[in-house]
Amino acid sequence: MFTKVKGTQDFLDLTLFKFFIDQSQRHFLNYDFTEIAVPILESVALFKRSLGEETDVVSKEMFIIKPAAESKDEICLRPEATASIVRAFVENSVQHAPWKVFTYGPMFRYERPQKGRYRQFHQVSVEVIGSKSIFQDAQLIKMFDRLFTEKCMLQNYVLQINFLGCPEDRKLFKEKLYKFLESKSDQICQKCLERKEKNILRVLDCKIETCQKNYEKAPKITDSLCGECSKEWQKLQETLEILSISFIINSKLVRGLDYYNKTVFEFVSDSLGAQSAFCAGGRYDNLVKEVGAKEDFPSVGAAIGIERMLLLLEEVQDKLSLPQPKVLTVIMPVEEAQNELALLVADELQAHNLCTEVMLEGDSFKSMMRKANKLGAKHVIILGEDEQKNGTLTIKNMLTGTQNVIPQSEVVKYLS
Length: 416
Ligand SMILES: [Zn+2]
Ligand SMILES: [Zn+2]
Prior knowledge:
Bound molecules: zinc ion
Number of strands: 16
Distance between the termini: 45 Å
Structural class: alpha+beta
CATH class of the largest domain: Alpha Beta
């Protein structure tokens, strides 16, 4: 027997998945976003340049594909979509900014699978490319908040925000943090000691408790902001308040990727255990130029983890306006001689968009009835020798048990 690749999953029921995609699409369109699609295959170099060579995603978690013989480029399965969208913006010379777009699809990271975390996972990515206004960040956050509260009926979540400042602020902060970590080097974990040298901001989201205890007294990046960043950080908080968004400031929130600056945020939920963020993002003012644009296009964006969102939606499933269950008619030819007639009647119903199933496996009448029940049929149409001869059909309402004989020509009218 073949089994699925570790860290992947089969979706045998897409009800909630489709519900979420459908709700987000409609919601984002109302904020004047455009849906786009970008490839799953991208060059490895794109992510090295954008996410940073020292990030876990690039250094350990990439699915790199052996390139075709004629190609020298290393190709990978995309680990996220922001870099791809930025590449598409630059490569297609998109002329209007802000370019407000979203996309959804599978992403790939080779990491240890755990609750709500897969090697092939799905994200909705939303980007506003080419806007330096901090109000845009607030509006984007409001858009997500409204999606989660009103469309997804989530209650049990919190918005965490932080502000990483400009590159100069981070340089200053990294020096302060380095000094602080030097003084604690005998009390923090081996990984943090490595991060301290390579990707120092990442120490702050170390999952180890003793490290976290130590970092409670670590310098805060928001204390290292220049005058202008300080003002924007204040403005962001004020605007979120004006838009009635509740949030908490998490001074340890830095996000894993190199490209973030200024605003970073995460929507987190206790229901998800340790991997608690289900939507995360922030501002990336330098990435577009880094990926090849001639000028700066300050940008902000975020991604929603669909697998984690599905875990949250399962909890509130009863409150969601999910699509109505189908109204099914099952047609039962009593003998093989009625199969053609059964297909003709089914064809007529299906042409009128009436959901119809035909029993063609030659089962006994009793067994067909049992199957129809199991399928949740509302009506069963019985076609035997008599019905065939008389141009009629017997139709049974499975809820009430009532049974009628009607002319075949009236079946659509009867069921509509
Ligand atoms: Zn600054
Ligand atoms: Zn640590």
